[in-house]
Request: fold
Amino acid sequence: LKDFASGAMTAPRLWRPEDISDILISRRFAVREWREKLDDAGELVEYERTRAVDHETESWKNGTVDTEQTTVHETLDTMVYLVEGFLREGLVPLMWKQDIKAAYRNLPIRKEHLKFAWIAYKWSNAIWVAGHKTLNFGSIASVMGWNAFAEGLSWILRKAARSATARYVDDYFGVSRAGVQWNGSELIALLAKLVGTPCDPDKAAPSMTSLALLGAGVMIQATRMQLALRLQPLKAKRYRRVVQRALEDQEVSPGNATKLAGKLDFATCVARHKNRPRVHPAHLHAGTPASARPFVLGRPGIAMVGRMAAMLQRSTGVELQGRPEV
Reply:
């Protein structure tokens, strides 16, 4: 009903037998998942939430998508590259970020494809159906469609406006010189509004020397012409929990190995450590079948995880990275 009120979906109605031949229907179901957040005391607490998922693989809709495009996103490394480029030239940049509000839900589906974008769910002992009017979650076509659109916005900012801009899905970020008439944050906010995908003003962070970005804290120390990085407290606590469990059990399942490899790889990126290959055993086990036996860490694995645990314990501090002395 919320999507219908916003114009993203048609009004729900009861399923009719002729729908089998008239529209393509994907099953919608509820997924309950555990999330984590920091309470007022700074402790990590879990809470449960429910979200709707459209099973478009089951309906074979996703199987019809064939594209030669690849989705490429800039990451924290890109922001570091941009900032350090300014610092090497003796300039102190101002960092910014903007988040597109309800990105998928602001892009319409092509008129000829609307009949393939219906979902069904059961409520009050009856089957109800509704049709998507805008890009929906669970569809590969939505991912590729948004990627092409979002890259178009990035191209305009980079080529036409000469703005140092990067993008991670629907998050735009970058750096600008102080005193420019229009910085990157203002440009993307204006451009996104003009094309019908406005930015979320509550998540905007324009012209800052300290910025929370993609799970990390990025700080520019102007007096020392240096860049400081650290994990955000929530992520640091999450990562330490995963590492602690691995050390206590001294074995890792394929599923947890996937989490461990990703978390530690990101943590070493933030800490600017040169020891990413030490995460290699976790990456190898992450690719094994889910039914495989747990991976016993052994002495090399325990040493690897132990080093990461020590690094994460220091992750709330500031590790400086700056240009060398001339």
About this structure: Residues 273-291, 316-326 have pLDDT under 50 and may be disordered. The CA atoms of residues 7 and 51 lie 19 Å apart. The first strand starts at residue 13 and ends at 14. Residues 140-160 form the longest helix (21 residues).
